[in-house]
């Protein structure tokens, strides 16, 4: 049996007396695309930050490729982080930098690198997300929201991470642009063979991007299954959430 790419076991995190994660157990297989759904404030971002090593959990373990990374620090932490790519909500592009420098930001990490080579790398990665060389020297503010999202995607894939995290990738986009981004994410994940974890409130996006969906509720994964079961989960919490109903067990 292959090792899961990401394995969370009984992960716990509280802030003061507010319990956010209360025993999260979840495995994401290599090459799998997993969507995490759940209401606002249920701890999706906290879970992601624990995996990224930005928040220390109070209990439980996180394994990446079988390695226990829960309490890594320093160089060992940075080595694990090098496996990760991230598409932030809102893109998080630097408006003071031209697009090509934004795309290669994760590769240079502020170091001086051969700019001709970096521009070529930026161009290659922009091409993967359907943008041409004409945007290389523009600033992010000169692009539409959908194009900025593509640039952020190009930046996330440029270092060829093994695992990519997408935080609300379609928020703020119109439905057509959201669909374009969903298709792009799906084809990038499949084309590059990466493992993907997407946090989303958008059920259309979850079904399009993911192979499997997991729902977080009251600090635990209360359901996970293939995305074609999302509307046929027989779980009253999942049902209420995906139908967006006010009445039901979630109050
Ligand atoms: N650093 C922190 N200190 C204190 N409380 C925190 C901290 N980070 C998160 N929380 C709390 O943990 C809870 C879960 O937050 P989190 O951001 O993970 O929710 P979420 O499921 O991602 O929500 P949303 O869908 O709205 O983004 C919230 O009540 C939040 O206030």
Q: Would you give an account of this structure?
A:
It comes from Sphingomonas quercus. Keywords: ATP-binding, Nucleotide-binding, Transport. The protein is α/β, with parallel strands linked by helices. It has a domain at 1-83 and 201-251: Rossmann fold (3-Layer(aba) Sandwich). 34% of the residues lie in helices and 24% in strands. The chain is built from nine helices and ten strands. The strands form two sheets. It has a six-stranded mixed sheet, with helices on both faces. The chain has a four-stranded antiparallel sheet with strand order 2-1-4-5, covered by helices on one side. Strand 9 (212-217) and strand 10 (220-226) form a beta hairpin. The longest helix is centred in the C-terminal third of the chain and has 18 residues, at 175-192. The chain is globular and about 55 Å long.
Note the beta-strand portion. Answer: 15-25%
User: Main beta sheet: strand number and arrangement?
Assistant: 6 strands, mixed
Strand tally, please?
10
For the CA atoms, what is the radius of gyration?
A: 18 Å
Terminal-residue CA separation: 40 Å
State the share of residues found in helices, binned by percent: 25-40%
Return residue spans where pLDDT drops below 50 for at least 5 consecutive residues: none
Name a few traits of the molecule.
251 residues; alpha/beta; Rossmann fold; binds adenosine-5'-triphosphate; six-stranded mixed β-sheet; 9 helices
């Amino acid at each position: 049996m292959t090792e899961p790419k990401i394995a969370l076991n009984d992960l716990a995190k509280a802030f003061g007396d507010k319990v956010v994660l209360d025993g999260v157990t979840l495995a994401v297989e290599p090459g799998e695309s997993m969507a995490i759904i759940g209401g606002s404030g249920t701890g999706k971002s906290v879970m992601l930050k624990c995996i990224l090593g930005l928040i220390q959990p109070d209990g439980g373990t996180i394994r990446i490729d079988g390695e226990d990374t829960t309490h890594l620090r320093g160089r060992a932490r940075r080595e694990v982080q090098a496996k990760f790519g991230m598409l932030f909500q809102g893109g998080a592009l630097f408006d003071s930098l031209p697009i090509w420098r934004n795309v290669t930001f994760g590769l240079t990490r502020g170091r001086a690198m051969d700019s001709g080579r970096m521009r070529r790398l930026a161009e290659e990665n922009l091409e993967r997300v359907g943008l041409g060389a004409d945007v290389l020297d523009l600033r992010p503010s000169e692009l539409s929201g959908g194009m900025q999202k593509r640039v952020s995607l190009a930046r996330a894939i440029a270092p060829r991470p093994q695992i990519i995290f997408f935080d609300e990738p379609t928020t703020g986009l119109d439905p057509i642009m959201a669909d374009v981004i969903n298709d792009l994410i799906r084809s990038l994940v499949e084309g590059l063979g990466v493992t993907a974890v997407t946090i989303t409130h958008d059920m259309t996006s979850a079904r399009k991007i993911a192979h499997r969906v997991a729902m977080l509720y009251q600090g635990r994964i209360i359901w996970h299954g293939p995305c074609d079961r999302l509307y046929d989960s027989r779980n009253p919490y999942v049902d209420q959430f995906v139908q967006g109903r006010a009445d039901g067990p979630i109050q």
